[in-house]
Amino acid sequence: MAYDGTRYHGWQRQSRLPSIQGAIEAALEQLTQKSASLYGAGRTDAGVHALAQVAHFDTEHGFKEDEWRRALNALLPPDIVIQQAEVVDGDFHARYSAGSKVYRYQIRNAPLPSPFDIKWTWHIRQPLDFEKMTLAAKGFLGVQDFRSFCAAGAEVKNHLLEMKRVHIEKKGERLWITLEASRFLQHMVRNIVGFLVEAGQARRAPEDTFRVLSAGDRRAAGITAPPQGLFLLKVNY
Amino acid sequence: MAYDGTRYHGWQRQSRLPSIQGAIEAALEQLTQKSASLYGAGRTDAGVHALAQVAHFDTEHGFKEDEWRRALNALLPPDIVIQQAEVVDGDFHARYSAGSKVYRYQIRNAPLPSPFDIKWTWHIRQPLDFEKMTLAAKGFLGVQDFRSFCAAGAEVKNHLLEMKRVHIEKKGERLWITLEASRFLQHMVRNIVGFLVEAGQARRAPEDTFRVLSAGDRRAAGITAPPQGLFLLKVNY
How far apart, in Å, do the first and last CA atoms of chain A sit? Predict the structure, then answer.
């Protein structure tokens, strides 16, 4: 599914606030007249978007694959779109069966703002040093402990994960930072992007990456990029 | 200037409704403490956007060019951005000095909607016949009477104008229709786009263009495309 996360308090269901999971579960319950539990591949934060989020649910309802898609889209608001529905084996789990996830962060690097990408970019006026950012990014590759880039209050004990790809691309006034990893910790992409932007502003040396990773301390890594530039791009199975 | 026209009732100032002209005039008056009149190159409709609208005003205020830009942007909401300010000769008029204007209409031609371009496209699910549309578009070129494509209630007597360019481009799931003319009549681009879409759906023969133009009757031309796909792209002087 694709969604514009602007008006949602993230993927995860919350009792009184609108969430992506809550909106889709409500549509499922309206369709099947039974309570529904949806399991997503990645719990995107408030204001974060998705181009191809994946989620699964259990049902005994006899809809065909494309009937699910059409019926759910008819019930959902236009900022959430089910792109595909597929019947899977009983042992498939959207989150635990995933081999890796790909996130992309979009920066507008131009002196002037644009009225058309306020909802989809982090606007940074000063030119970022692309070479310095690319150099700093290399240090994230491989199996490493990402505790320094995990939200301070996150309930997770193991911070070890494999970063498979960090790619920085310049497209005119836009800068795309694409990350692929076995899993992602809370705020991890936004904290890595914050760090890379500081490297691009020469406020950090590109060699700092290893030092900050090995510090194992959130306070070593610096700023968190705002949510609206972040997209869950793909989940690989 | 660039603007996202979504929440405005068009370019033209209105007594109680938000307009682009009204918003910029209010910012000018706040800056100069004098009443201000802004003259735009094109009066975009409600919900229509601009990438490079041009407007002029008279002032005796001593700001430098870039000071105007920065001061106005500081006062304007984020969906209106002044991109450039320039001191011009006293005989320059944003509308009457313009040689031609370029508009672009953006269609999303794909089975599924996208949550990311609702505000910027007309979504058409059925595949449009690109060849038929291109053929129908050719008939608009040259000096012709566009009464059939002008809004029925428009207060204009002369419908003769020169269409300099009609270009249709396919970019993945998007279709761009770009028109350049000496001037544009009310709803003209949206009426032409509506006609071209009907040609692309084989609901009209591509040869119909001449017949509809020569009818000189709004009822001959068919549907009006919705405003959100339309952008004022450029004003040539």
Answer: 16
* Contact in structure between A122 and A229 (CB atoms under 8 Å): yes
ipTM for the assembly: 0.84
A145 is catalytic: no
CB–CB contact B112 A83 (8 Å): yes
CB within 8 Å of chain B, chain A residues 199-218:
none
pLDDT digits (tens, 9 = 90+) for A103-115: 999 999 999 999 9
Q: Which amino acid is at A91?
A: D
Mutate to test the interface with A, among B20, B51, B82, B114 (most CBs of A within 10 A): B114
Give ∠ CA B141-B179-B91 in degrees, rounded to 5.
100
Summarised one tens digit per residue, pLDDT across range B5-42 is 999 999 999 989 999 999 999 999 999 999 999 999 99
Tell me which chain A residue has its CA closest to the CA of residue B113: A81
Residue B62: DSSP 8-state: -
The C-alpha atoms of residue B177 and residue B156 are separated, in whole angstroms, by 25
Are the CB atoms for B235 and B184 separated by under 8 Å? Answer: no
Q: Are A235 and A98 in contact (CB under 8 A)?
A: yes
Distance CA A132, CA A203 (A): 11
**Is B172 part of the contact surface with chain A (CB cutoff 8 Å)?**
no
Cβ-based neighbours of B99, under 8 Å, separated by 6 or more: B182, B236, B237
Residue B83 is given by DSSP the state: -
Do residues B23 and B77 make contact, with C-beta atoms less than 8 angstroms apart?
Answer: yes
Q: Residue B56 belongs to what H/E stretch?
A: strand B55-56
Q: What is the rounded distance in angstroms from the CA atom of residue A151 to the CA atom of residue A191?
A: 8
Q: Write b or e for each residue in B122-155: b if 16 or more Cβ atoms lie within 10 A of its Cβ, otherwise e.
A: bbbeeebeeebbbbbbebbeeebebbbbbbeeee
Contacts of B115 in chain A (CB under 8 A): 2-4, 49, 78-81
pLDDT tens track for A177-227: 999 999 999 999 999 999 999 999 999 998 899 999 999 988 888 899 999
The answer to whether B2 faces chain A, any CB pair under 8 Å, is yes
Nearest residue to A159 via CA among A135, A179, A129, A182:
A182
| Distance, CA of A210 to CA of A215 (rounded, Å) | 9
CA angle A182, A184, A188 (to 5 degrees): 140
B-chain residue closest to A76, CA distance: B115
For B76, the closest chain A residue by CA position comes to A115
Cβ B195 vs Cβ B204: under 8 Å: yes
